[in-house]
Structure formats: C-alpha cells, structure tokens
C-alpha cells in the first residue's frame, strides 16, 4: 500500500531529475566562470583620521607657495605590507593653456614609525589641458598579489564645449620600497556636450573598464579593457538626432617598462 502511494512521487521525481541536473550543471559552470575572473584582493582603504593628522606636517612642509591654486592630498593603506602611501599635488609656477601645471609627489611611509621610506617625484608632473578638479587614489585593486595602485585625475572644461574626463595612472610599489610608474594617463571616462542649432545638445560619452585576467606578463597582470562609446548629433537642417554606438576590446601587457597605451589612445575623443 505504501509503495503504491509513493509511486506517483517517484515518477514525478524521475521526470524532474534531468531538469535539476541541468540547473545544477549551469550553477557549477557559473561558479567556475566567476572564480576564474574574480580577484581575491580587497579594495584599498583610506588612511585613518589619526594617520592624516600625523601626515599634515609632511604635507605642510611640501605645500606650494601658490595659494591661489588648489592643493590635492590623499592617503591609503597598502594591502601587502604595513605601509601607507600618500600623495600631494601642488601647483607650480609654470602656466600652460590657462590650466596650470602641477607636481605629483608620492610618499611611502612605515605605518608603525611614520618614517618616510621613499619619496617619488613624478618627472613629468601633471600638465592638465583643462581645469584640474581632483587628484586622488583609485581604491580598485589592480593586481592580486602585489600593490599596484591607481591614481585618478579628473578634469573639466566649461565653455564652447562642456567636457569632463578621467585619466588613470598606475604605480607599482615594490617590496624594496621602490615606486615605479607603469601606466601613464589612460582615459577611462569622457563626457562632452555642445549646443546645436536645434536648441539641443550634441553629446559624446566614452567609458573604459579594466579587468584583471588570470595571465601575467613580465611580472604584471595582463589587463583586458572593454570600451563603449555613444555620440548623438543633430542635423541642423531637419533637427533630427542620430546616435552612433561603438564598442572596443583591448589588451594591455607590461613591456618591461610600462603598459603602452598608444593603440588605445587612437580612439580618444578630441578635447
């Protein structure tokens, strides 16, 4: 009697079993796919308020005498050592394109003693083509097993063309306290708008995202870059807008000195 009662449930389970196996297989595949692309590194953390107070003396000793220009400062805790990395960027006396030039200094600091282990002065500095709005650390971990730190520059322009852009720089912090500049000014975001004859706005937008692959080359991860752009322009004769969408994929490999980006910059919008 019990066997006859359970027989319908058994038949139902037999029909359901292939479906359950299918979804279980899909789940395992997705877990494997995510595991193959995710990084185990945690995002960088900003320095504590107590650490910032201790750094103020260091920053004040290196501040620019040009008080009419903004001063940019930031600090993070490195993941793979008990060290802090601080930045300070001050306006210099050199003026270019009414935007002004800035220096860029990085300080590698022992968190326990607050001894400055290394000072890195960017030989090129920062030469913004438009107004410089921010210089700050990017908290994204760009490597799994080493401190590869990003610095983001944000610029804007208000005039005939309203525009903003974000540039990414990468610095490798070595165990022997060396600081290497390995990526120089990759544009990750761009937006612009110009007023058309149709009382509306022509617009351009560009976004690039960096993804860490599971492969390395000459000691650094190989990056996969995904790019998407959209531009809309009005025909002044009929005031109808046309939109163009584009996508691109690139690979970034360290060549022994830096990550070359010339092949990517070819698609940068004109400023």
Automatic annotation (TrEMBL):
Q: Which domain of life is it from?
A: Bacteria
Q: What is this protein called?
A: Uncharacterized protein
Biological source species: Acinetobacter gandensis
């Amino acid at each position: 009697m019990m066997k006859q009662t359970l027989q319908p449930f058994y038949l139902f389970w037999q029909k359901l079993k292939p479906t359950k196996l299918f979804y279980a297989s899909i789940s395992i595949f997705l877990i494997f796919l995510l595991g193959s692309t995710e990084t185990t590194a945690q995002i960088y953390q900003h320095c504590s308020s107590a650490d910032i107070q201790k750094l103020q003396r260091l920053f004040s000793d290196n501040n620019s005498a040009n008080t009419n220009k903004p001063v940019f400062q930031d600090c993070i805790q490195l993941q793979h050592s008990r060290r802090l990395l601080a930045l300070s960027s001050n306006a210099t006396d050199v003026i270019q394109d009414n935007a002004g030039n800035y220096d860029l200094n990085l300080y590698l600091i022992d968190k326990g003693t607050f001894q400055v282990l290394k000072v890195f002065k960017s030989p090129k500095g920062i030469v913004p083509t438009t107004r410089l709005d921010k210089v700050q650390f990017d908290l994204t971990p760009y490597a799994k097993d080493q401190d590869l730190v990003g610095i983001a520059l944000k610029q804007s322009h208000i005039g005939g063309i309203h525009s903003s852009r974000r540039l990414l720089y990468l610095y490798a912090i070595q165990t022997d306290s060396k600081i290497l500049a390995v990526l120089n000014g990759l544009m990750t975001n761009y937006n612009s708008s110009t007023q058309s004859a149709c009382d509306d706005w022509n617009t351009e937008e560009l976004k690039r995202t960096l993804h860490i692959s599971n492969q390395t080359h000459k000691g650094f991860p190989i990056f996969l870059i995904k790019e998407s752009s959209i531009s809309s322009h009005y025909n002044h004769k009929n005031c109808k807008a046309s939109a163009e969408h584009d996508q691109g994929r690139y690979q970034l490999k360290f060549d022994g000195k830096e990550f070359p980006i010339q092949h990517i910059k070819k698609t940068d919008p004109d400023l």
